[in-house]
Amino acid sequence: AQTVTQSQPEMSVQEAETVTLSCTYDTSENNYYLFWYKQPPSRQMILVIRQEAYKQQNATENRFSVNFQKAAKSFSLKISDSQLGDTAMYFCIMRRGGGADGLTFGKGTHLIIQP
Amino acid sequence: GAVVSQHPSRVICKSGTSVKIECRSLDFQATTMFWYRQFPKKSLMLMATSNEGSKATYEQGVEKDKFLINHASLTLSTLTVTSAHPEDSSFYICSARDGGVVNNSPLHFGNGTRLTVT
User: Fold this and answer.
1) By C-alpha distance, which of B71, B39, B45 is closest to B60?
2) Predicted local confidence at residue B105, as pLDDT
3) CB contact under 8 A, A101 and B104
């Protein structure tokens, strides 16, 4: 069975600080994809960043970067220079590759950016 | 970029009535769509997988007669909540998979539908 664990139900940081959201997962697959999605109060699911498991290089998107440790099955999200608009629920999601359907969601981390 | 349109965004209905929610892929063909339910401050719970031209696959515990799914075309899947009860009140979200890209396509989510059953 595949699992995704987000151990921080809620985090709060000051604006402009750097924050890291943790995500660990478990799978027996060798080919899979990992995503971080944010869900602001509007409830829209917005892609933040994604990582292919076969790529060693950590993905980066502007202020967002991941620390992907495949051996440790860890996929943390770092947000630099946090902004008020970053306040949202963040979900870590794993998707199997190989043409198989199936997503595994983490329970989410509610990130609050304080002014 | 790929867009998934979900309609309506908000609906209020009376107990016993049925409500239909539409999920459309606007610029790609979605061979597979997923329907989720989300409770406040909780993660998304997969309800069913909708495959174009075939029957939907329901997750354990989801009543297929209660939540009817139809994926009649490559761009449209519908979820009908039949004989709605107040406990069906929730936030429903669809996502679509781009049939042109098998593995590494991102997940395209609709904006969700807030259903309130009175």
Assistant:
1) B45
2) 63
3) no
Q: Is B47 exposed, middle or buried (0-12, 13-18, 19+ CB in 10 A)?
A: buried
Tokens of B55: 């029957």
Q: How far is A12 from chain B (nearest CA, A)?
A: 16
Greatest alpha-carbon pair distance for chain A in Å reads 44
Measure CA B76 to chain center: 10
Closest partner CB to A33 (pick from B46, B93, B103): B103
Question: Contact A45/B41, CB-based, under 8 Å?
Answer: no
pLDDT per residue as tens digits for the range B42-72: 999 989 988 888 889 999 999 999 999 998 8
Distance CA A48, CA A93 (A): 11
Of B44, B104, B114, the CB nearest to A52: B104
